[in-house]
Design brief:
By secondary structure, this protein is an alpha+beta fold. The chain is built from two helices and four strands; from the N terminus they run βαββαβ. It is globular. This is Heavy-metal-associated domain-containing protein.
């Protein structure tokens, strides 16, 4: 599992929006540490697509940690 820091995830509604919109494409999103960190099983070739799709939803993929 890889861990990513995501900006603008402020509540459970944000989590639900991300999960409902992106889990079919990227698999299970596991949020931790006050919803700012997400864990998921993701290949390198999908990171750019994840970043783009999160941005379309109003979130920003900041970094892998």
């Amino acid at each position: 599992m890889r861990r990513f820091k995501i900006e603008n995830v402020n509540c459970q509604n944000c989590v639900n929006l991300i999960k409902n919109s992106l889990e079919d494409e990227f698999g299970n999103f596991e949020f931790e540490e006050g919803l700012k960190i997400v864990r998921l099983d993701l290949n390198d070739d999908k990171i750019a697509l994840l970043r783009e799709q999160l941005q379309q939803l109003g979130f920003k993929l900041l970094e892998e940690i």
